[in-house]
Amino acid sequence: DQQVKQNSPSLSVQEGRISILNCDYTNSMFDYFLWYKKYPAEGPTFLISISSIKDKNEDGRFTVFLNKSAKHLSLHIVPSQPGDSAVYFCAASALDSGAGSYQLTFGKGTKLSVIP
Amino acid sequence: GAVVSQHPSRVICKSGTSVKIECRSLDFQATTMFWYRQFPKQSLMLMATSNEGSKATYEQGVEKDKFLINHASLTLSTLTVTSAHPEDSSFYICSASGGPWSNEQFFGPGTRLTVL
């Protein structure tokens, strides 16, 4: 059962326009959400996060929106740049008291291509 | 942000041999480290969580005798793939967290394992 879903495996956007990447989750215990950017054969790099007590977090060109009632979040990139081309993973965090840590559950990723 | 390194970046080995992958947090003390595995075009799958000085907590379906994890210090965790087989070929990524109750995870660059 996939608890974090990114239903669009790929997205193409023209340079300068807005990129919107979507993510849905099913586990109501998730209380922190993160977006990671990943290039092939590299580890993910952190982009932006949002706590469940907020509905919006902005950092430069990146904005994450959270709709808790719909269990949906989205990442907006504006304006999109060719260097933004990568795979974007949505991740959700919940406390695992057994392991004594917050664990991340990842979606399958969306490959963003920004066309010059 | 915090830096996590992995070594080696890629390794090719014969079936039946053991391979050790190191994960180091370079500029912070990582009380918790995570090991992920990523198949092509798939999400990152958490294999295990380890807290410094204690035994790792393995996810369901991950063989603890095959994937040995040692987290002996606050800056180093190792993953040993014992008696590797071709189906163990994958991209292994570690991440480190600065504290047991920290939501932030910093990822290493990954290790590509190919078992012939």
Domain count of chain A, please report it: 1
Shape of chain B: globular
Order of helices and strands of chain B: EEEEEEEEEEE
Low-pLDDT parts of chain A are none
Percent helix of chain A, as a range, is under 10%
Radius of gyration of chain B over all CA atoms, rounded: 13 Å
Tally of separate helices of chain B: 0
Brief write-up:
The complex is a heterodimer of chains A (116) and B (116). With 116 residues, chain A is an all-beta fold. Chain A has strands at residues 4-5, 10-14, 19-25, 32-38, 45-51, 56-59, 62-67, 72-77, 86-96, 101-106, 110-115.
Describe the overall structure.
The complex is a heterodimer of chains A (116) and B (116). Chain A is mainly β. Chain A has one domain: Immunoglobulin-like. Chain A is built from no helices and 11 strands. Chain A has strands spanning 4-5, 10-14, 19-25, 32-38, 45-51, 56-59, 62-67, 72-77, 86-96, 101-106, 110-115. In chain A, the strands form 2 sheets. In chain A, strands 2, 4, 5, 9, 10 and 11 form a 6-stranded mixed beta sheet that branches. In chain A, strands 1-3-8-7-6 form a 5-stranded antiparallel beta sheet, with no helix packed on it. In chain A, strand 7 and strand 8 (72-77) form a beta hairpin. The radius of gyration of chain A is 14 Å and the shape is globular. The model of chain A has no long low-confidence stretch (mean pLDDT 92). Chain B is mainly beta. In chain B, strands 2, 4, 5, 6, 9, 10 and 11 form a 7-stranded mixed beta sheet that branches. Chain B is globular, with a radius of gyration of 13 Å. The relative contact order of chain B is 0.33. Chain A binds chain B through residues 4, 9, 32, 34, 36, 41-46, 49, 89, 93, 95-96, 98-109, and chain B through 1, 4, 6, 32, 34, 41-46, 49, 51, 57, 91, 93, 95, 97, 100-110, 112.
